[in-house]
Amino acid sequence: MSTLPPWDPATFTERLLAKGNRYHIHHPFNVRMQQGLLRPEQIRGWVANRFYYQVCIPQKDAAIMANCPDRETRRRWRQRIVDHDGDETNEGGIEAWVRLGVAVGLTRDELWSQQHVLPGVRFAVDAYVNFARQAPWQEAVCSSLTEMFAPKIHKDRLASWPQNYPWIEPDGLQYFRSRISLAERDVEHGLETTLAHFTTREQQLRALDILQFKLDVLWSMMDAIELAYGECG
Ligand SMILES: O=C(O)c1cc(C(=O)O)c2c(n1)C(=O)C(=O)c1cc(C(=O)O)[nH]c1-2
C-alpha cells in the first residue's frame, strides 16, 4: 500500500489530463483519418463500427445509475441517457450518428443491423459496459473521463473533414458539433465525482489505472478497425 500523501486536486487533475497522450486521437488510423488520407470505404468502416459504441453508451450510463444510490447524482446522470437516446424534443446522439452514417454512404439498415461490427470492437465496447455494470459507480464515472480529451477530437474533425472529405454531406457532421458542449458538461460532473471519491494516493493511482483501461478500450477499437480497413485490410 502506498504511504505517499495524496495529490492535491490540481495535481491529481493534471495527472489525469496527462493521460491524454494515450488517447485514440494519436492512433495511426485516426491520424490518417485526420490528415484526409482515408478512402470512402475506410471512413464507412469506422463510422459503422463506432455506431456500436454509440448504441452501448446509454446502456453503460444506465448501468452506472443502477449502481448509484445517490439521488442527486442520478438526477444529473440521467441527462446523458437522454442526450444519446433522445426524447420528444431532441433526436439524440444515436440518431445524429445514423445521419453521419447516411452522409458517408451507409444505409440505416447497415448501421442498425451491426453487420459491419468487428469482433474486436464488440469485445472492447462490451468490456466498457461490463466494467460499468460491475465496478463501484464512482469507478465507472471515472472511466468516462476520456471525454476530457473528446472536444479536441470533435473540433479537429469539424475543422478538417469539409476540406478533406468534400464528398461527405456537411450536415452529417452535426453529431461532432453537438458533442463539444455536452462533453464539457459531462467532464465537469465526472471530475467532480472523481476528485471527491479518489482521495488517498492509492485511490488516485487506481483512478489513473481506470482511465488507462478506458483509453485502452478506445485504442483497441481503433486497432480492430485499422486491421480490417487500414492499408492491410
Ligand atoms: O469521437 C470520439 O472520439 C469520442 C470519444 C469518446 C470518449 O473519449 O470516450 C466519447 C465520444 N466520442 C462521444 O461522442 C460520446 O458521446 C462519449 C460518451 C463517453 C463516455 O465514456 O460516457 N465517451 C464518449
From TrEMBL:
Matching entries from NCBIfam families are given as: PQQ_syn_pqqC
Q: Which GO terms describe its biological process?
A: pyrroloquinoline quinone biosynthetic process
| EC number of the protein | 1.3.3.11
Highest lineage ranks of the organism? Bacteria, Pseudomonadati, Pseudomonadota, Betaproteobacteria, Burkholderiales
Keyword Oxidoreductase among UniProt keywords: yes
Protein known as: Pyrroloquinoline-quinone synthase
Q: Where does the chain cross the membrane?
A: none
Q: What is known about what this protein does?
A: Ring cyclization and eight-electron oxidation of 3a-(2-amino-2-carboxyethyl)-4,5-dioxo-4,5,6,7,8,9-hexahydroquinoline-7,9-dicarboxylic-acid to PQQ.
Protein species of origin: Pseudoduganella rivuli
Record-linked Pfam families: TENA_THI-4 (PF03070)
Keyword list, A-Z = Oxidoreductase, PQQ biosynthesis
Family, per the entry?
Answer: Belongs to the PqqC family.
A Gene Ontology molecular function term for this protein is: pyrroloquinoline-quinone synthase activity
SUPFAM superfamilies hit by this protein: Heme oxygenase-like
